[in-house]
Write a structure and sequence with these properties.
Length: 139
Amino acid sequence: MAKVIVLKKQDGRLMFDVEPAYIFSTLANGSYTITIKKAKEKRSIPQNDLMWMWFTCIERETGTPKDDVYMYYCKRFLCKVIEIGGHAEKIYNTSSKLTLEEMTEFLNKIKADAATELGITLPLPEDRFFEQFYAQFNY
């Protein structure tokens, strides 16, 4: 079984989530390979909150329940085809599995689609009237 040590470098210093010597002491005799890869940040809570405010807005404008709007966009933008044993199946991810960057891309696609297909302008937090939008749709 793989052992995982999470480290963070900040201001030139390394910080570990667990003492590396402890992890090494738990290994059985043998040869090992250590791989270091940059961690991918999961989507943020503010991103998730923004998405659900947008879906509440779309629900009010279209009458489609926001949970259905969510499923629609997951199927539209997070769908892929997998093939197992000669059988192709469409599967889709949910936003909970997305990284910070993937969630940004997902939100950009939703924003563009809502504008072009539904005629709904969905604001970003830096937009001029976002505070009013937030007050209306955040609950």
